[in-house]
Amino acid sequence: MSIRKMELEDLRKVVELEHALFLSPWSEEDFSHELKENPMAGYYVLEKENEIIGYIGLWFLGDQCQITTIATDQKYQGQGYASQLMEYTLEKSEALHYQNVNLEVRVSNVKAIALYEKFGFKNVAIRKRYYSNGEDAYLMIKELEG
Q1: Which domain holds residue 46?
Q2: Within 10 A of 30 (CB to CB), how many other CB atoms are there?
Q3: What CATH number has the domain bearing residue 120?
Q4: What is the CA radius of gyration of the chain?
Q5: 47 CB contacts (<8 Å, ≥6 apart)?
Q6: Which residues belong to the active site?
C-alpha cells in the first residue's frame, strides 16, 4: 500500500472512480485544473499492487487544510483504506502546523460522516442546498494542535 501525489496520467482511473461513486462527479477537466492551476491544491492517490484504489484532494489554505474530495473504490470499501487516506491527511496537516482540517459532506452520506467522526471531526454547521441536486451539507471540522 502506498500514497503518492496524483499525476495527470492517473486521471483516467481517478475520473472512472469518481463517476462510479458520486452523484455530482468531478470531470477530468476539474481534476486537471486542480493539478495544473491551483497552487493551494494537493491531490494524492492510494495504490494497492500498482492499482489506484482511492484518492484524496486537499486545499492548503493559510492555517487550515480543506478536504475537497475523498474516495475509495467500491470493492475496497470497508477495509480501512479511507482511514489510511484520512491518517495521511491529518499527519500532513499536523506537520504543517495547521489549526484545523475541514470538509463538507452530504447530510445523507452516513458512511462518510461515521468515518469523519471516528477521526474526531465535529459537525459545526449546515450548508443549505450546497450540492447541485439541492442537498444540504454538513461542515465538519477537526481541530489540531496547530
Answers
A1: 2-143
A2: 16
A3: 3.40.630.30
A4: 15
A5: 1, 2, 3, 4, 53
A6: 104, 116
pTM listed for this prediction: 0.94
What's the helix, strand, coil split of the chain in %, to 5?
35, 35, 30
Number of folded domains that form the chain: 1
Per-residue pLDDT of the chain (146 residues; tens, 9 = 90+): 899 999 999 999 999 999 999 888 999 999 999 999 999 999 999 999 999 999 999 999 989 999 999 999 999 999 999 999 999 999 999 999 999 999 999 999 999 999 999 999 999 999 999 988 899 999 999 999 85
